[in-house]
Write a structure and sequence with these properties.
Largest sheet: 14 strands, antiparallel, barrel
Radius of gyration: 30 Å
Shape: elongated
Distance between the termini: 67 Å
Number of domains: 2
CATH superfamily of the largest domain: Outer membrane protein transport protein (OMPP1/FadL/TodX)
Helix content: 10-25%
CATH architecture of the largest domain: Beta Barrel
CATH topology of the largest domain: Porin
Number of strands: 22
Strand order of the largest sheet: 1-2-3-4-5-7-8-13-14-17-18-19-20-22
Strand content: over 45%
Oligomer: single chain
Number of helices: 9
Length: about 550
């Protein structure tokens, strides 16, 4: 039987929740929420966005504390209809709720006339948890196939199941840097970021039941019953084999008067009902082998359709250097460039309970998260550019962009390349699932209404560059449009509060998925669509002394 679960390990990869690249968050301050164009920042959040720009701060200590609360809705719609288009999933629409009540950013810097020392802490990737209360299409396609597969032989007309999956992912980044003022218009910076990654997965797939007549019966019980019937068919041939008729076909044995025509038909039709299409050409000994083979197959299927749970934790870490340049050709113009190198990481599974997803050709179980298995989980190199231009003392324009070197990284994606349960899914390189590197472009306006109050707003366009092989119901990358607005209020000369809200709308995407109908091995195709949106609120305080 085809895998009941066709999971790709990585339900909540870093970056799937927040703004930025595929696995890189860039929403790292409350000021960003109100103005999503911070790449040329010369405020304290420049610790992340523009480390060289810290040289624009006044001498002394500077601290920033902020938090964002994030809500995301994810929708996957699957239009699989199965053989003949007569039967598909009970409900094609699957909705997941993602939330991150705490998404902190902490920055501190000490600046002198020529040097600045800074540290920062933020969720550089991930930072939220996703909950799927009724699972996803990949949970249901296998059980849905049982209805047409068993309609004739078992009188099955419907299915139901209890599916649940909850995952969380956070990649905390702890960085330190040194900034240096070369002259009045040029400063540079360099530093290191230490990334600590942790993913968790908890869920179950249980109570898979099929409607027989008016009764709901467990699917594994039905499979066990079929296996027992296959065993009885094989056992029933033992007297014929021991009596010397093993090398005869059932038809030849009936012609010789060893068995009746009714017995001949029972032997052949029993195998045909178990999926053995060439039963009439087999010898009685071969028929017995086929019966016992069917017994083993259906016993394995019964186990696959039994109740399952997952309890998994993945952890890993890596280090990334970064470099920054800030150029100020005039008092009103500021230009910033930052480059972050790739963070190479491997996540190691600590598995207490695991989902069984299939078997190899030798009946070895294939599980989703083998204990101790390592999964690549790189964060890509990133180039960011920003420009701030002050039109007047009260009005500033900001533009910028980010370029993510996704194709050169390894995100640990798995693909079931031959659509079979006999071969475990294999890791693929990013170049196979990404057509072009992701990027984002942003712009914004900031207006000082008074000496104490300013308002701002901005827009960011992101494009992920993935191809259809990347997309799945668990992990999909979509182009997006982010709108943010808010303000800042200076309570005292050295104390400012930032607050804002943003909304991200993602472009719907679709792909044609492949699914093998387990009863016949025939490949069917179905359309699957992906959509999500994100709402974000941020508040923070900046303090200098």
């Amino acid at each position: 039987m085809k895998k009941v679960l066709t999971f790709i390990a990585g339900i909540i990869v870093p970056g799937v929740l927040m703004a930025g690249g595929l696995v890189t968050n860039t929403n790292h301050s409350a000021a960003w929420v109100r103005l999503p164009a911070r790449n040329a920042s010369t405020d304290i959040d420049a610790v992340y966005y523009n480390p060289a720009g810290l040289m624009k701060l006044q001498n002394g200590f500077h601290i920033s504390l902020s938090n964002q609360t994030i809500f995301q809705t994810r929708e996957v719609e699957n239009f699989y209809k199965g053989p003949g288009g007569a039967f598909g999933l009970n409900d094609p629409l699957f909705t997941g709720k993602v939330k991150a009540p705490l998404f902190p950013a902490i920055y501190a810097a000490y600046k002198t006339e020529r040097l600045a020392f800074s540290i920062g802490f933020n969720p550089i990737g991930g930072g939220g948890g996703a909950e799927y209360t009724k699972g996803l299409p990949s949970f249901e396609m296998g059980p849905a196939d049982l209805v047409p597969a068993l309609a004739a032989s078992q009188g099955v007309s419907d299915y139901r199941l209890d599916a649940y999956l909850k995952g969380s992912s956070v990649y905390f980044g702890l960085q330190g840097g040194v900034s240096f003022k070369v002259n009045e218009w040029l400063s540079v910076a360099a530093g290191l970021r230490y990334v600590m990654a942790k993913n968790t997965y908890n869920g179950h797939l249980q109570d898979i039941e099929l409607l027989q007549g008016t009764n709901w019966v467990r699917a594994d019980a039905i499979m066990t019953g079929i296996a027992n019937a296959a065993k009885a068919g094989g056992d029933g041939l033992a007297p014929l084999i021991s009596g010397g008729a093993g090398n005869l076909t059932p038809a030849a044995a009936a012609t010789a008067g060893i068995i009746t025509t009714a017995q001949r038909d029972a032997i052949v039709n029993g195998l045909v009902s178990l999926g053995v299409s060439n039963a009439s050409s087999l010898t009685i000994s071969q028929c017995q082998t086929a019966y016992y083979g069917a017994q083993a197959k259906y016993n394995l299927t019964a186990t696959l359709l039994g109740d399952q749970e997952a309890d998994v934790e993945q952890t890993g870490s890596g280090i990334s250097p970064f470099f920054s340049v800030n150029i100020s050709p005039s008092e009103n113009l500021n230009i910033a460039v930052k480059y972050e190198m790739k963070t190479s990481m491997q996540l190691t599974n600590k598995t207490t309970k695991d989902f069984l997803v299939g078997y190899t050709a030798t009946a070895t179980p294939i599980t989703m998260f083998p204990d101790g298995e390592e999964t690549p989980a790189d964060m890509p190199a990133m180039l960011s550019v920003g420009v701030d231009y002050r039109l007047s003392d009260a009005f500033k324009v900001s533009v910028g962009g980010n370029y993510f070197f996704d194709k050169a990284a390894d995100y640990g994606r798995k693909l079931d390349l031959d659509n079979s349960s006999a071969t475990p899914s294999t890791f693929v390189k990013n170049k196979d699932i990404i057509d072009f590197n992701g990027w984002s472009a942003n712009c914004g306006l900031e207006l000082n209404l008074s000496e104490k109050l300013l308002v701002s707003g901005g827009y960011m366009l992101s494009n992920k560059g993935v191809n259809s092989k990347y997309q799945s119901d668990l992990t999909f990358g979509l182009a997006s449009h982010t709108f943010g607005a808010g303000g800042a209020y200076r309570i005292m000369d050295n104390l400012t509060i930032n607050a804002g809200a943003s909304y991200t709308q993602y472009n719907k995407d679709e792909k044609e998925i492949d699914h093998v109908f387990s009863a016949t091995g025939v490949l069917y195709k179905a359309k699957e669509t992906y959509l999500k949106n994100t709402v974000l609120f941020g508040i923070g305080v900046d303090y200098s002394f």
